[in-house]
Amino acid sequence: MPDLTKTSTTDKAAAQDEVVAGAAVSATPAPGKPRSLWGDAWRDLRRNPLFVISALLIVVLLLVAAFPGMFTDANPETGDQAKNFLGKPELGHFFQADWFGYDGTGRSIYARVLFGARNSIVVGVGVTLLVTLFGGLVGMLAGYFGGFWDSLLSRITDVFFGIPFLLGSMVVLNGFTDRTVWVVMGALAFLGWTQIARVMRGAVITTKHADYVVAARALGAGTKRILFRHILPNAVAPVIVVATIALGTYIVAESTLSYLGLGLGGGEISWGGDISDGTQFIRNNPHVLLFPAGMLSITVLAFIMMGDAVREALDPKLR
Amino acid sequence: MTITDKTADVPAPRSGEEKSGRLLDVKDLHVEFHTRDGVVKAVNGVNYSVDAGETLAVLGESGSGKSVTAQAVMGILDMPPGKIPQGEILFRGQDMLKMSNEERRKIRGRKIAMIFQDALSSLNPVLSVGYQLGEMFRVHDGLSRKAAKAKSIELMERVKIPAAKERVNDYPHQFSGGMRQRIMIAMALALEPDLIIADEPTTALDVTVQAQVMDLLAELQREYNMGLILITHDLGVVADVADKIAVMYAGRIVETAPVHELYKRPAHPYTRGLLDSIPRLDQKGHELYAIKGLPPNLLKIPSGCAFNPRCPKATDICRTEVPPLVPVTEQDGAELPGRGSACHFWKETIHG
Amino acid sequence: MGRYVARRLLQMIPVFIGTTLLIFLMVNVLPGDPVRALWGDKPPDPAQVAQIKHDRGLDLPLWEQYLHYMKGLFQGDFGNTIAGNRPILDEITQAFPVSMRLAVMAWSFELVVGITLGVFAGIRRGRIVDNTVTLFTLLVISVPIFVVGLLFQLYMGNEWQWITPTVQDSEDMGQLVVPALVLGMVGLAYVARLTRTSIAENRQADYIRTAVAKGLPKQRIITRHLLRNSLIPVVTYLGTDIGTLMGGAVITEGIFNVTGVGNLLFTSLARREGAVIVGIVTVLVLVYLLASLLVDLLYAVLDPRIRYA
């Protein structure tokens, strides 16, 4: 007897599978309703409140990072210390200089929070790009070629992975007196690429043995074509998820380093640095610390939530 | 006056009710799944019954609702997303759908047991087979670990696993496919249940092993006088062991018949299509017959007879009216016991 | 089994050498001169600098320095500090027990609380418990650890006075509870998330359906069938996290004034005592490598399908 849906009925409870498979078979030929992993994921995402909230937050944060001056007239760099020393926040004064109060040198915390977004996001995005490109490349080569190259690249990855991330970054940054955005980015990427490399390697190895790749090879497709047309598009999903979440953790790392005094130097505004400055007023004027801390947490939350939502959408096992 | 019912934890047949002795009676069962694409109507009014010692084969393609029905009987449907909006499942006359979870749990394994298709994934990979078999005795009978192990060895011998004593501590992956399925059977048999549901028990096995496993199952069924529901899409398996057959399509039973009558004279075009698509040696060189089209989308079951888009005999009435399962008779009106067909044109199909 | 362990230990050697070499290079190639730092802001005396460098072998080529270092390491000699010329091993053995205690406590939080939360969330996926746990873990992961630490210190220490704002005695376990909680918070959230995902995935497995069909009580299904299979990925995380916790204690130790490895590391960075940093990282790498070996061996216990030949 013909059993049309056999190939898809392996994992899940037979009941649901039978139903879902039955539905899928008849849904595929229906015109105008393409269903793919990404299409399905997008449909899921749009309905996921976590995704919608995080996407909105990220858009706003990107705007703030790009044009902080659009949201305030106050100067984040200088303040009237005599007049505004540790001025309390005026929570009713929306978008005004004194909205979040003033810090120990009389600078508007609202302005500083806005201008701090740029550095945090630039570092986060920059490190993520560097790490994804380099780690992705290493992982792809190790996974695809296997054998000697895999052993070599995996051992190198192990070596870099063995050094605690934060600790290693501290050591690197400690060597620099002029810690610009680029230096911080480089230091974080220097040790951060291992995670993506490992994820990419795993994904490529899994995909490499998939039937459709074997089939493509049997049909005479070349290495380049197999790698870029068949393996990469299918291995990229887990990498995207990990990279999105990692972006959040890189922002945390940058602020942590700045908090420790090893992050951005030379008067660059960083939430971590502002939090560090705020600790001396923590008992009586916690607002100096709480607003940058809150902004930092919201930013990180937005990226991690985004990563989470994408993961759920891309992982059919968790539907 | 107090009557101490010693079998309180196991529902016994209530006096005066359903004295007919039906072991299992499924009545007008509906099952649906609420998914994000809509409501999937997996089972749409199924009726069937099994007596002690009887074998009912439920035949159908994937998506016909045969497994879902069995899982509803067993009480292992995921709810939600599954839902049983309508119907009764009477076990020895008592509706299991009205029982508490605890009552149902005590029936599972002890009174009704199930054998699954893929023994490798259905056995827990990290527990020894002896442990998994012994669990039945430890949980249901309160036996000690040691006594349970002795019983497990006995069970493994009963299903003809060689060197049972040495292998009792082995893990599922250390057994061959056929042996694993024997372990599944042993697990189902452990407490000598009244009814066994076997969901495609031999599909995952090599052809040579299939017959052995099927024979073993049939032999044990006779020995214990159990009812057996055999779910399959393999017409060959059915012919050997079943007493009666129910053919399912799109969540409904489209034909019921004693086993040999069905092969001789099908009364539904779908059954006929299934029979015609078996490759036959005497027709070597001919093109294989296949039922055209695809199984229906359970989100949008065609109106009327669900089979109509694929049926060679479909007419207008088939597209508008759902044919009920009616008794099938001889041309002279003589009764054919146990036969039924859900086709507007059953007469033409069986006699034409 | 014995052969597997031996092979794994052999494989560790290149990673160990590679990691120590890497951190050695990081410390020594980057700018910053520990000898010069002895003078602080005052201009150093070049002759004295050269003399000290010569005495300590710091004028040798880098690879020779590394060989010397490794040779000493195998004899249990981590070298001496530049300032004060104290054996680095002494400093490390003084600081490590404190951090170890803190890390083990934090690790226990991760294990117990993380797994418990994850199991409840995974079993009741999509329900209120699950959503609460998920939201909680998201928040914990998002709020940086130094913010959490400062807030705990502010409220528990200063406002409500449940604890002393800083640890007075690093040997006192009771005082370490809150710092350990702060330290273990992020890991706890990750463990909970991992457990939740793993449980939710395995819950759909065929063998769970079998267990239900066997008529097993729910609690037995969870503890005997579901949990063991689900914990395998969690064990990996927990195994490698103990090293991370010790290294990550810099911030927690700084906030609560615990005199452990983090503290030592931070002061060494300021004084540019590269050898101390290399020593600390060496020990951390050893802890990490041994932990991952243990995890691999634990796998065999948890999953009989894995056999070590």
Automatic annotation (TrEMBL), chain A:
The chain crosses the membrane at residues 50-71, 121-147, 159-176, 182-200, 231-253, 289-310. This is Peptide ABC transporter permease. Belongs to the binding-protein-dependent transport system permease family. It is found in: Cell membrane. It is a multi-pass membrane protein. Keywords: Cell membrane, Membrane, Transmembrane, Transmembrane helix, Transport. Its main location: membrane. InterPro entries: BP-dependent_transpt_permease (IPR050366), MetI-like (IPR000515), MetI-like_sf (IPR035906), OppC_N (IPR025966). The keyword Transmembrane applies. Pfam families: BPD_transp_1, OppC_N. Residues 117-307 form the ABC transmembrane type-1 domain.
TrEMBL record, chain B:
It is a peripheral membrane protein. Its main location: membrane. Signal peptide: none annotated. SUPFAM superfamilies: P-loop containing nucleoside triphosphate hydrolases. InterPro entries: AAA+_ATPase (IPR003593), ABC_Ni/Peptide_Import (IPR050388), ABC_transporter-like_ATP-bd (IPR003439), ABC_transporter-like_CS (IPR017871), Oligopep_ABC_C (IPR013563), P-loop_NTPase (IPR027417). The keyword ATP-binding applies. Gene3D superfamilies: P-loop containing nucleotide triphosphate hydrolases. Keywords: ATP-binding, Cell membrane, Membrane, Nucleotide-binding, Transport. Residues 1-20 are annotated as: Disordered. Residues 24-275 form the ABC transporter domain. GO terms for molecular function: ATP binding. It holds the Pfam family ABC_tran. It comes from the Bacteria. It is found in: Cell membrane. Belongs to the ABC transporter superfamily. This is ABC transporter ATP-binding protein. It comes from Streptomyces lasiicapitis.
TrEMBL record, chain C:
Pfam families: BPD_transp_1, BPD_transp_1_N. The chain crosses the membrane at residues 12-30, 104-123, 135-156, 176-194, 234-256, 276-302. Keywords: Cell membrane, Membrane, Transmembrane, Transmembrane helix, Transport. The keyword Transport applies. Residues 96-299 form the ABC transmembrane type-1 domain. InterPro entries: BPD_transp_1_N, MetI-like, MetI-like_sf. Its main location: membrane. It is a multi-pass membrane protein. It is found in: Cell membrane. Belongs to the binding-protein-dependent transport system permease family. This is ABC transporter permease. It comes from Streptomyces lasiicapitis.
